Amino acid sequence: MMKMHYSMAHEPLLELSTRDALVANMKKAGIEKIWIAGFLSGDMIDLEELKQAKAFAEQNGLEVGALTIPVGHPGNSLNPDDPDSKLTIPAHWHYRIDKRGETAYFCGAIDTFLIEDNGKAAKLLCDAGFKEVFLDDDLRIGNLNDSIEGCYCDACVTEFNAIYRRQETRETLRARLADKLDLALMKDWVAFQCDKVTAVMKATEMEGVQPGIMVMHFGDERHGIDIPAIREQIPNTLFRVGEHQFNDRKFANPYAKGEEMLGIAYHLNFIDKPFAYSETTIFPPRSLKAHNLVYKAKLAIAAGLENILFMSGTWAMDDSYWKAIANALPVLRAFDKACADGERTYPVHLAYGTHGAYAEPIIPTSLPVLAGLPVKPLRADQCDGDGELLLFFGDYELTPQWQAKLPLYNQVIFDQKAALKNKAIIEALMATASNLVCWDQVATSKPDIAEVSLLQARIGQEASDFPRVAEGEPYRVGMAEELREGHFI
Predict the structure, then answer these.
(1) How confident is the model over 433-459, as pLDDT tens digits?
(2) Which residues of 456-477 are buried (b: 16+ CB within 10 A; e: fewer)?
(3) Environment class of 235 (CB within 10 Å of its CB; exposed 0-12, middle 13-18, buried 19+)
(4) Residue 443: its pLDDT value, please?
(5) In the CATH scheme, what architecture does the domain 3-340 have?
(6) What does CATH list as the number for 348-488?
(7) For residue 311, what are the β-bridge partners?
(8) Residue-wise pLDDT tens digits, 303-348
(9) How many other C-beta atoms are found inside a 10 Å radius of the C-beta of residue 419?
(10) Contact call for residues 38 and 66 (beta carbons, < 8 A)
(11) 3-state helix/strand/coil string of the chain
């Protein structure tokens, strides 16, 4: 069943004049657990203050966990309204250097000092009574883009060469990773970066502490985040899956809502639901209307998340947000109950590359979601036997791994972009395969209603018996959309 959480700074829990009202608002909104920041970009928050904040919350019936910012963040993503936000990293850390040799300010490179400091912070938080430590916003070595990221400082390149017996420089790495021809090098560099992120996680794993990691929107190995490896080495890890669309300007677009659904479904391919948390976030402060925040929670529930985690940086949400969540709570609970009875199945798969190390497009088209299909993105290195229809849309390579999976589907549809990229392979396969179809349309990154209709018509030509939305208005924005029931066939 759904559990509601809120991530916040500790100071509002110490403000005598307002803290009672804040906690009352949170409880009315169904919040059962809060996560308070304890270690920010190398600096430990005053432990006595953290203990007092934790004690007050617990006295008022709230569970309390800790979160940290383990490496810093490339930019002020805490609260740009607060000029006093401390975002510099400690002097004994060193900044991450990107592939162009430029400094990623506010963001530490993962080295021995950073790893040790995060381990020490987890131990201090454990001793202060915190049993979970979420390494949040964001434990990664890159930003949201298609490219293979990492730290390209001299020390990291030297360490990489020593471990993998190579003789690369920043310049050769940049060039060879950009042309994407040397897959062995790409995999080695990605593994090197992933090991660093996982090492930070392992430093926080100790008796009495359950670690967690935030995974940004479609974050994967190219950003140093190897979810299967983390789960193998630290089986009880919590994962916060990044949803990205944090303000009205972005979230109001139907294709963005579709991307959010796909992003959650993609990460749930790797994670058991009890360990997965939403990123139901407002950023910057007040930039997402209250009803859109509620809608984000609905999307998370619909996608299969059981832990709904609201967040607003160091800014505490005001009364209007808590009131909106409280008013929607009966609907959210009813929605959760209706969704929780059956296991979700996705007979439609959307091809999403082969592996993060291939550096293929990071955000797939949300067209199948807007067309009402029960769809999830799937990589070629993932096993899943429930697929009937595979949509191979976009600039993804039909690798040998994907070719081996094609016979498992009743039908595979390639859009024009995928068909052109893999023209020779598809033509050769079609000589013996009857389940391959080339669609004379391009699935764009921002589908409009005309594209939605075209895909619905194309799928409607088939005798597929899986349930799908046949009627609806995905391009209506506002409260009416939230409350509208879909019509299924």
Answers:
(1) 999 999 999 999 999 999 999 999 998
(2) bebbeeeebeeebbeebebeeb
(3) exposed
(4) 98
(5) Alpha-Beta Barrel (3.20)
(6) 3.40.50
(7) 7, 281
(8) 999 999 999 988 899 999 999 999 999 999 999 999 887 778 899 9
(9) 21
(10) yes
(11) CCEEEEEECCHHHCCCCCHHHHHHHHHHCCEEEEEEEEEECCEECCHHHHHHHHHHHHHCCCEEEEEEECCECCCCCCCCCCCCCCCCCCCCCCEEECCCCCEEEEEECCCHHHHHHHHHHHHHHHHCCCCEEEECCCCCCCCCCCCCCCCCCHHHHHHHHHHHCCCCCHHHHHHHHHHCCCHHHHHHHHHHHHHHHHHHHHHHCECCEEEEEEECCCCCHHHCCCHHHHHHHCCCCEEEECCCCCCHHHHCCHHHHHHHHHHHHHHHCCCCHHHEECCEECCCCCCCCHHHHHHHHHHHHHHCCCEEEEECCCCCCCHHHHHHHHHHHHHHHHHHHHHHCCCCCCCEEEECCCCHHHCCCCCCCCHHHHCCCCEEEECCCCCCCCCCEEEECCCCCCCHHHHHHHHHCCEEEECHHHHHHCHHHHHHHHCCCCCEEECCCCCCCCCCHHHHHHHHHHHHCCCCCCCCEEECCCCCCCHHHHHCCCEEC
- Contact assessment for residue 96 and residue 139, using Cβ atoms and an 8 Å cutoff: no
CA atoms within 13 A on the CB side of 221: 22
Residue whose entry in the numeric block shows the structure tokens 């001299």 = 154
Least confident interval from 64-78, 237-251, 352-366: 64-78
Rounded CA-CA distance 107/74 in Å is 5
Give the residue from 368, 370, 428 showing the smallest Cα distance to 393.
Answer: 368
Strand 3-8 relative to strand 307-311, pairing: parallel
Q: What residue ranges do the domains of the chain occupy? A: 3-340, 348-488
CB 226 within 8 A of CB 194: yes
